[in-house]
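## retry 2 of 3
previous attempt timed out at serialization; input unchanged, resubmitting
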Amino acid sequence: MGVIAPVVLVPGLGLGPESYGPTQQHLEIPSDVVTLPGYGEPTRDDDLHVEALADRLAKHLQPGTVLVSHSASCHVAVATALAYPDLVSALILLGPTGDVTASGWPTLAGRWVRSALWERPTLIPTLTKQYFRTSFPAMARAEQVGRQYDLAAALPQVAVPVVVLRCSHDHLCPAAWAQRLADLAGGEAWTLPTGSHMPVLTNGRDLAAFIHRAAGVYKAG
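## retry succeeded, writing output
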């Protein structure tokens, strides 16, 4: 085992630090969760443009950080890697949204419903708590701004290793979209056999394994 990179986890839209609890319990290395307006924090007058949130996120990073993001926060992670290349050594994108060709509300709503049908009902209490804490107005503002960010156009410019990870029943991040993003970044795309759009809550052990690998932890088996 060589030098272990620092790890920072960014919640998805509306989610809070506890969303990474099932992942952190399987991590054998230190990690920090960084929340942002719309992504775990409520907001009033904050600038929610992706580049502005990237500036805020960068203040919490050490050089060589493995940056893990979920859903819409993948936009922010990619923007951070582009603006602050010395701070990011690898990107792990979990169920990234951001397909500008499918960013209309009717399309997003349909994909969300198809994904939600596969989520565990036991997730409802924790999701509800996190969403209300962040607030639905903050989530709506962040989503409205974030869905204008062209993730596919940005990824070819990223100069660090990229892993795109999704679950088999995630319709917000279809397999073809995940593979396209990985190909654009010269990275890897993986589909886990279980779960939907909340791998941070349902596939923690699997996510931890990918984080270990990106951070420089190589474990047999």
